[in-house]
Amino acid sequence: MPTSAPPPIEYDPPSPGRVKFNAYPDADAWAWSCAVMLAASLRRDLAERGHARLLLSGGTTPAPVYRALSKAPLDWDNIDVALVDERWLQPDDPDSNARLVRENLLQNHAKAAHFEPMTRLGRTLDEAVASANAHARQATTAAVLGMGEDGHTASLFPGARDLPRALSSKSDYVSFDASGCPGAGPWPLRISLTPLGLSKARERLLLVRGDAKRRLLDRALDSDDASVMPVRIAFTTPGATLQIHWCP
Ligand SMILES: O=C1O[C@H](COP(=O)(O)O)[C@@H](O)[C@H](O)[C@H]1O
């Protein structure tokens, strides 16, 4: 894989300060640049602590970044990979976020990483949440977030009854019932990272593609209500500056 990222196109977001916006001309430059940046963060934690931990989102956007990152020659034996959120599906279900991570990141060099799926045969939802919270006691190198077309991030959906509880939770992960939210598709039952869980990540990336999502992002940056635009937690939660990586 390349060792340095091409320079992103500069752009001033409407809400500067807690956000850095990086735009790339195409998906290849975007994927390789994100992979190079993630590899650098992992390498830094491996050097400083002998261990690194990566939190990954699912959905339709991040696979090219994960495939590029899988080729990074890192000490993957000492890297834990976990999920930002999961649909209440078995880990080998084709629609699970775990399957996406397995098929795209846990290949090539990254095959040696230690992966923590949230769901497991025979595990109840409460047990899965407890296990995610237990793992979350370890320091997190970077959290990779996505944004749905309804402004959700992780599995925090606008309009869901569970959203206020999740946004103010004192746990890193919660169960989340998104029944009635069209953006949750056929998987309303979820486990999600909370703002508290996100605040512990040393680095924070938001991967976004396409013009419609860029317009949505501008609306989220301008809005002041995380219950309408949950993606706002990505830059309003105390902690690391949000690095947004966008391409057409
Ligand atoms: O359901 C989910 O959606 C979001 C956004 O996905 P995308 O398909 O619009 O990229 C994703 O970040 C999250 O991990 C996933 O569970």
From TrEMBL:
List, for all copies, the residue spans of the domain called Glucosamine/galactosamine-6-phosphate isomerase: 25-235
Look up keyword Hydrolase and say if it applies: yes
The pathway is:
Carbohydrate degradation; pentose phosphate pathway; D-ribulose 5-phosphate from D-glucose 6-phosphate (oxidative stage): step 2/3
**What InterPro entries does this protein map onto?**
6-phosphogluconolactonase_DevB (IPR005900), 6PGL (IPR039104), Glc/Gal-6P_isomerase (IPR006148), NagB/RpiA_transferase-like (IPR037171)
For this protein, the Enzyme Commission number is: 3.1.1.31
Q: Which Pfam families match?
A: Glucosamine_iso
Q: Which reaction does it catalyse?
A: 6-phospho-D-glucono-1,5-lactone + H2O = 6-phospho-D-gluconate + H(+)
Keywords in alphabetical order, please. Hydrolase
Report the sequence similarity comment from the record. Belongs to the glucosamine/galactosamine-6-phosphate isomerase family. 6-phosphogluconolactonase subfamily.
Q: Which PANTHER family match?
A: 6-PHOSPHOGLUCONOLACTONASE
Role summary = Hydrolysis of 6-phosphogluconolactone to 6-phosphogluconate.
Q: What is this protein called?
A: 6-phosphogluconolactonase
Q: Which species does the entry assign this protein to?
A: Luteimonas gilva
Give the gene that encodes this protein: pgl
